[in-house]
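Write out the 3D structure for:
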Amino acid sequence: MIMLKCVADNLAGIPGLSLEVTFMFASLATSLKDDIILMQPATHNICKPPLFLPPSIVSFLSATCKLQIESMKTCWSVLKSSIWAGNFAVHEKMKDLFEIHGHPHGLRLLLGKAEQRKAVYFGRSGMVPAYSVQLYCEPCKTTYHVNYKVTGDRHIYYDYTTALPDIVQIADHYLVDYGVVRLWKAMMHASCTSATNCAHIYNITLVNAESAQFPGTKWFSRDVTMDHVWNMFIICTLLEDCRECHCLLNVGQTVNQNKRFIEAMSDRNRHMRVYNQPLAHWHFCAKCTHIYNHGDNTNQLVSVIVVDGVVVSCPCCSVPNCWVHLCTPQDRFCYVHSARLEQCAIKGCAQSVVSGSLTCDIPAHQESEALHTLRGKSQFRLHERLERSQAIHGCLANVQVGDNDDRDNDDRTQVIGEEEYDVKLGKKKRLHTQFTCNYTHCEELIVAPCRIIHAC
């Protein structure tokens, strides 16, 4: 405990300092302990008070106590041990001072340091070990991160309508400088560099002493990966789009990182289809626009666009005219029609599938699935090449597969055909199957001669 006489001697030379002001200073400084720790170096021992206060804390205390900045520094040097021990408490009347003077200095009484995590910062000069600090507000149950806040099940990014952030948090333990973000995006757009090569180029060119000594942990690596580059591309592109639309990026928090931005990307694509590019409707240049003069003081503006189809087949749901995207290219149905996975893959058959199979227990359907499985093997493909080379025409059902030179094996030939008897109709017909997903035909692009894309 600080001796009262010692405190009085050290603080006697401060003009305007009363017992009430001294108690206010000590109480406010105690409530700002977490903010003081937050601005100290990572190697600082939090059990000991720092020698000096951060400038924002000093300015806030000077404004609330109405004393000079030098007087605040003297009060801290005398009372810091008792303040750090938590011997003072904040009264309700003092909380109003945070609402009045706290916001200009970036201080709030309700925020506390929730967690400090080890992180990796990918900067312009290479990888640097860092810390990612989270702040938590108890009344509103909100956790504040570097670029976003988490409220309930929502993941809301800050307002970047005036300027984009200097640092982007692409994952829990990874931070990227925005200059590196621009470099990766330029490499993708200008030279068609893949995300894997962007990460590889960064890892082999920007190796410094910090990155060589940093071992990494089992939770995160010190090297840039393909997933980091794609997370960067998605997050920064959505932030730039929200900046142009003057809105906030609001995504779900409970879903995984790889599915978190699917809804936001779909909304952005839908907005682009409806409203087009921001300046496309008002674009007129000499390459795509010509003005015709009819001689009667009337001019006619004519613009030219080219509609071209690019054969880029994309996986889609097996249900016709379904626009819901597949979770993975290996899926046959989207999540809306996932119940059809329990139905036989033969079109027109409504029976349930056998466990571990795509078809029901009808032998003809089982043989059709066996033929589909066989087609994916090299033996079947080599047989097809052999038949084409020998110019043998005929039905695929008559092709014998699986010849074996062992004469002791009576089952050396297996004949599998596509044409079987239909159970309902009782006549021979070709079975139509759906063992894989469907694919789109092409992508239509509407482009002006000056390369302005109007729609796709």
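The chain has 13 helices and 17 strands.
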